[in-house]
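Let us walk through a complete example step by step. Step one is to write down the protein sequence. Step two is to encode the small molecule, pyridoxal-5'-phosphate, as a SMILES string so that its atoms and bonds are unambiguous. Step three, shown after the inputs, is the structure prediction itself.
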Amino acid sequence: MRVPFLDLRRGGAALDEALREAFDRVLESGTYILGPEVERFERACSERLGVRHAIGVSSGTDALLVALMALEVGPGDEVIVPTYSFFATAGVVARLGARPVFVDVREDDFGMDADAVAAAIGPRTRAVVPVHLFGQCADVDAIARAAGSVPVIEDAAQAFGARYRGRAAGGLGVAACFSFFPAKNLGALGDAGLVTTDDDALAAKIRRLRVHGAEPKYHHHVVGGNFRLDPLQAALLSVKLAHLDAWTQARRAHAAFYDAALVSRVTTPRALEGRFHVYNQYVVRVASRDAVRAALAADGVETMVYYPRPLHLQPCFAQGARGRFPVAEALAESSLALPVFPELRQDERAHVARTLLAHA
Ligand SMILES: Cc1ncc(COP(=O)(O)O)c(C=O)c1O
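Step three: the predicted structure of the complex.
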């Protein structure tokens, strides 16, 4: 049996048909930049996430970039980010001429460690960016306490639908940034993203930055960019949003199956009290990870590694030697993501668990 890590073509004929209808609607509308489809999707997101403003943007990376631009992060500033995340979390900071200040993550939720944040805060800190890694919220209350008056910007790229103490990811900080990269739990058919905030002034700034800082058109107050969400992606995402709860339920059922099947032999992810995990990824920890991964591949099980190298050890940042952030470095050597996409079949997940137990 071959089990793919992710198969984006298993949504089924009914979903395909609804997506084609959405495509036709946009085609026939003649509106291909912003407009009612984007507004409709933004409204649906703000209602669902319980935030005043949801602003569709071109990608998760641009969501982070434009949120930090709205906070006027620039040269000489510092932004605290976890060293164990996707590159964009830190990349956007460096692109603005500011310095990403890395902190280690926790073993239990893979999120930023609040004590490390407290130790890293300084007079130049302009933002703290916790990442809700793999679909479980970071401990944002503790992080916000450590941040004090410094704004917390959620990197919620992997956490649409996740909740923390009853509150939705997206409403846990000053602003939040989502990605709809196709592999995400809510994925577009291309690049797309979203910024959410309850702050009216910040929302207005972000909307302006999204269109080159112009308001009205051709009158530029600040230097922004083209960070717009396509109406086509918005229409497709509106179709998919209606399925998200069912898909999340399926992911959680796969996770519960893996938890029960694997826990005796493998370190399974911990779903913490008070947090609703959406399992964008299901990540176990194993010794000799690369050998285990190769053995699984030989038995037809495709897996992924998020992430093989922490950000402080990336050549473009090169901050500090190996050993500086021991938790992140250990995770980079031991983490292994198993197939957890909603349409994964029961015989497939059983094969994954059996194969992993045979090799771990
Ligand atoms: C944690 C995290 N931050 C940021 C991003 C960037 O999102 P995008 O790929 O949509 O630019 C991603 C996803 O790729 C991510 O996983």
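Step four is interpretation. The pocket of pyridoxal-5'-phosphate is lined by residues 59-61, 85-86, 88-89, 131, 155, 157-158, 179, 181, 191, 193 (CB under 6 Å).
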